[in-house]
């Protein structure tokens, strides 16, 4: 059986993810711990996927 190669679209909008990124930076006071850095990286990947999804839809 072959693996499913499709990736579902983003669940949250780029604006929602951006708000979570901003809140993370505010809570951290501008300096991220290792755990916060890992969370930030995941959020940035999610944000980028949301942006790409929006661009693809517009074309």
Alpha-beta classification: mainly alpha
- Strand tally is 0
Unreliable spans: 1-5
Rg result: 14 Å
C-alpha termini separation: 34 Å
SSE order: HH
- Percent of residues in β-strands: under 5%
- What's the average pLDDT? 84
User: Count the helices. How many?
Assistant: 2
Major sheet: size, sense and barrel closure? none
The helical percent reads 55-70%
What would your notes on this structure say?
Residues about 1-5 have low confidence and may be disordered. Helix 1 runs antiparallel to helix 2 (about 35-59). About 70% of the residues lie in helices and about 0% in strands. With about 60 residues, it is an all-alpha fold. The N and C termini lie far apart (about 35 Å). It has helices at about 15-30, 35-59.
In brief:
With 59 residues, the protein is mostly helical.
Key structural traits:
59 residues; mainly alpha; 2 helices; 0% strand; elongated; disordered N terminus
Task: Give the secondary structure arrangement, pairings included.
Elements: H1 14-28, H2 34-58
Helix pairs in contact: 1-2
